């Protein structure tokens, strides 16, 4: 595993042309096995320190996103599978605090994997692990607060891919 501070592997550079709009600083790249085994719901063990090039970064490991990704790395709609984590932090936030985002690779670009509410909160859905599913950013953006089935989203995603 190779770690990168402030950059990512060259084949993923295209994705980070838009990183400025998200105000994220990429600290390093990690394998699934470096992150998910440490996800916890136990607040006593919620913080883990990851060291990248001698610099420690504290990550809260009790996120519902990590619990959701532990259940399934695959987008519930299009089956795109998250395959790597990037350790990132927001511009202007405390330097030693960071978080992991899960990404899938599609057409040599990184696609953010998200925690989606199966029943949207705006429709009465709860913030509960049983109401979460993994979804890629593309499918989640198409779904928004609509109650579309994963099959309907899959069909929309196929049209989207054919136009891309």
- Written as H for each helix and E for each strand, in order along the chain, the element string is HEEEHEEEEHH
Compute the number of strand runs. 7
What kind of sheet is the major sheet?
7 strands, mixed
Percent of residues in β-strands: 25-35%
Q: What is the helix tally?
A: 4
Structural class: alpha+beta
- Report the uncertain regions: 1-21
**Which descriptor suits the 3D outline?**
globular
Radius of gyration: 16 Å
Please summarize what this structure is.
This protein has 164 residues and is of the alpha+beta class. It is 20% helix and 30% strand.
Structure in words:
Helix content is 20%, strand content 30%. It is an alpha+beta fold and 164 residues long. It has one domain. Strands 1, 2, 3, 4, 5, 6 and 7 form a seven-stranded mixed beta sheet that branches.
Fold topology:
Blueprint: H1 19-22, E1 24-30, E2 47-52, E3 55-60, H2 64-71, E4 84-90, E5 97-106, E6 109-117, E7 132-136, H3 137-143, H4 150-163
Parallel strand pairs: 3-5
Antiparallel strand pairs: 1-4, 2-3, 4-5, 5-6, 6-7
Main attributes of the structure:
alpha+beta; 7-stranded mixed beta sheet; 4 helices; 20% helix; disordered N terminus
């Amino acid at each position: 595993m190779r770690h990168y501070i402030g950059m990512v592997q060259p084949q993923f550079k295209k994705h980070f042309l838009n990183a400025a709009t998200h105000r994220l600083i990429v600290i390093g790249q990690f394998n699934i096995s470096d992150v998910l085994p440490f996800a916890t719901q136990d607040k006593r063990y919620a913080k883990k320190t990851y060291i990248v090039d001698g610099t420690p970064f504290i990550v809260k490991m009790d996120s519902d996103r990590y619990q959701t990704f532990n259940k399934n790395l695959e987008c519930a709609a299009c089956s795109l599978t998250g395959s790597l984590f990037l350790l990132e932090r927001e511009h202007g936030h405390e330097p030693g605090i960071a978080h992991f985002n899960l990404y899938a690779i599609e057409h040599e670009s990184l696609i953010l994997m998200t925690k989606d509410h199966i029943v949207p909160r705006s429709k009465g859905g709860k913030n509960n692990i049983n109401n979460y599913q993994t979804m890629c950013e593309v499918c989640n953006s198409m779904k928004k607060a609509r109650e579309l089935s994963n099959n309907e989203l899959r069909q929309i995603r196929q049209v989207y891919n054919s136009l891309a």
